[in-house]
Write a structure and sequence with these properties.
- With about 375 residues, the chain is α/β, with parallel strands linked by helices.
- It folds into 2 domains: about 10-150, Four Helix Bundle (Hemerythrin (Met), subunit A) (Up-down Bundle); about 155-360, 3-Layer(aba) Sandwich (Rossmann fold).
- The chain has 11 helices and 16 strands.
- It has a 7-stranded mixed beta sheet, with helices on both faces. Strands 11-8-9-14 form a 4-stranded mixed beta sheet, covered by helices on one side. A 3-stranded antiparallel beta sheet has the order 1-2-3, with helices on one face.
- Strand 15 (about 340-345) and strand 16 form a beta hairpin.
- Helix 1 (about 40-45) packs antiparallel against helix 2 (about 55-70).
- The chain is globular, with a radius of gyration of 21 Å.
- It starts with 11 loop residues before the first strand and ends with a helix.
């Protein structure tokens, strides 16, 4: 029998020379940690969805780079830098859509570039040690910052909704909670903050096929927090929205283009279309690290194609035989005109998104 999962589960745990990741494929039935001792272990964990959620992927990748630095056992600084470059390239190829992955690795690259450019009378081993220490410190800093940022997102959301004359019925999709971040969460962090402020009546959780992140992860987090909720299948959303059972839709994001187009878990686009048709506010909650000003619009956001088996099976049970064709895009893109606002740690950004995202990125 699977062990009951404790409520104090952490998404990731840095042990100094290895990284522990809660295996989100096993939740809510089992608490199993995967121990990553090399950068290759981390890349595999990201690709296989042991860890998922854009902010969590970013922090995990940073620790993957730290493990790469710790892995190197040579004495040549140039060999060390080449080794790091190869390992970081491997990490960056783990998942293409979540921009936080590249944002985090770019921060690590900047540390390496800055430190390696300094003139020094230190030995090769001393320089390698110093750069390694800097990378580890940067990864630890990212983890702390992520939690602080999520708390600020929640605070800004509370300010946004505080004038509500009634408690709110919120629909959310996928999992953008503590499990998708280093702690607290983005979209689910917003719900946590609103619940603390006495503004939540109930949360409607889309199951989120094919990986069931809503039914397995979001519902589990809400249960632990004692926030009222119920789970529905993805194709029930329009029913509840049309009957006045949803006051707002709040989702996360894996990449936000410069014009506000937002990539999130497959199925988000459909929700945004229904919400716009019915006049229901639709909000994206995400840290500014998810904003990709280098990508002009959503058409240029790469969409990850996942293995067919994820659709063919549920918990190891085959539901679609091999001879039937399957397609499995992991994300879709919600156009900015369907978005009421993007709740970030800096502000609640509204249209015109291109102007305001650029403005707030400089603050």
């Amino acid at each position: 029998m699977a062990r009951k999962v404790k409520s104090n589960v952490r998404t990731l745990i840095w042990y100094g020379k290895s990284l522990g990741l809660i295996d989100q494929r096993k939740l809510p039935f089992e608490e199993v940690y995967v121990r990553c001792r090399t950068s290759q272990d981390v890349a595999k964990a990201i690709k296989d969805m042991v860890v998922r959620g854009a902010p969590a992927i970013g922090v995990t990748a940073a620790y993957g780079a730290a493990l790469a630095a710790l892995q190197y056992n040579g004495k040549d600084p140039d060999g060390f830098l080449n080794f790091l470059s190869e390992r970081i390239d491997n990490l960056s190829g783990a998942r293409p859509t979540a921009v936080n992955l590249f944002w985090a690795l770019d921060r690590i690259k900047n540390i390496i570039k800055s430190e390696s450019a300094k003139t020094s009378h230190e030995t090769g081993q001393q320089r390698i040690k110093k750069i390694t220490e800097k990378i580890v410190l940067e990864a630890e800093k990212m983890e702390r910052e992520d939690v602080e940022i999520n708390l600020k997102i929640g605070k800004n959301a509370l300010e946004l909704f505080k004038g509500s004359a009634k408690k709110l019925k919120i629909l959310t999709h996928c999992n953008a909670g503590a499990l998708a971040t280093a702690g607290f969460g983005t979209a689910l962090g917003v719900i946590r903050a609103l619940n603390t402020g006495g503004l939540i009546e109930k949360v409607i959780v889309d199951e989120t096929r094919p990986y069931l992140q809503g039914a397995r992860l979001t519902a589990w987090e809400l249960y632990q927090e004692k926030i009222p909720f119920f789970v529905i299948t993805d194709n029930m959303s329009g029913y509840f929205m049309s009957r006045g059972e949803v006051d707002a839709v709040i989702v996360g994001a894996d990449r936000i283009a410069a014009n506000g187009d937002s990539a999130n878990k497959i199925g988000t686009l459909s929700l945004s279309i229904i919400a716009r048709f019915l006049g229901i506010p639709f909000y994206v909650a995400a840290p500014f690290s998810t904003v990709d000003l280098a990508t002009p619009d959503g058409r240029l956001i790469p969409i990850e194609q996942r293995p067919e088996q994820e659709v063919r099976e549920i918990f190891g049970k085959t539901i679609i035989p091999d001879y039937m064709p399957v397609s499995n895009p992991a994300f879709d893109v919600t156009p900015n005109e369907n978005i009421s606002g993007i709740i970030t740690e800096k502000a609640v950004v509204t249209a015109p998104f291109k102007v305001n995202l650029e403005k707030f990125s400089k603050n």
